[in-house]
Amino acid sequence: MRTLIRSVGKQDIGGEPLPMVFTTLANNNIVIRRAEVSLIAGTPGAGKSTLALALALRANVPTLYVSADTNLHTMAMRLYSMVTGMTQTEAEKTMEQEPEAFKQKLDCSKHIYWLFESAPNLEDIYQNVLAFEELWGESPSLIVVDNLMDVAMDGAEEWSGMRSAMKELKFLARETNAAVVVLHHTKETYEGTPCQPRAAIQGMVNQLPALILTIGQDPNGGYLGVASVKNRYGKADPTGKLVHMLEFQPERMFIADPERAIV
Predict the structure, then answer these.
(1) How far is CA 19 from the centre of its chain?
(2) Domains and CATH numbers, the chain
(3) Listed residue (83, 19, 26) closest to 53, CA to CA
(4) Most-buried pick from 80, 93, 145, 242 (CB within 10 A)?
């Protein structure tokens, strides 16, 4: 039991923002916070993993990345592209032909630890958090779950299993004071211009996250739209029409603020 007054000014009380990664989003109070669950949703191939990987790399805080949707080889290739600006095809050639040079470029990602189980259950995630704590003496500041549909919930119907998983991940966020970022799919039947509404999110998992972003690529190319469809800390529009644009080149894993947003 604690009082709010005695908690103010103390470290790790929950809700602290992670380091700012995108000025465009931070200026609109779209902030990933510790002890909270944030959800990034979009259709397959929209750019969810690119956005999450950029957050994990550039926030530069102790991170556990649960990569159920993407294997080690592909993730290493994508990360190399993001760091160097090469295309993913060029990155894969470098991985094969110059493995030592490839490894050196990935040195900047040493703060990220990975779980590559294709269908991890919640116990797998908990055990990896405990292993992280044993290794570093602290919990991860950021936990990325990529993606929710791959988290195994034995014996549960698909939608109810997702809702149960979200409850457990919220508990994990509060217990560890980690920012938990969950990637999830939207229904492709909903139109996005370029971002879909909150109603497009599969499985009725909208209630628990403090922040929900839907994302979609600009049909003209070059940009990724990010819409805040739920935000306890700032403005949101459930229709997905409140869109903020980031420069985006998926073949190079390049994602950044537009120049006009950089201060």
Answers:
(1) 14
(2) 4-261 (3.40.50.300)
(3) 83
(4) 145
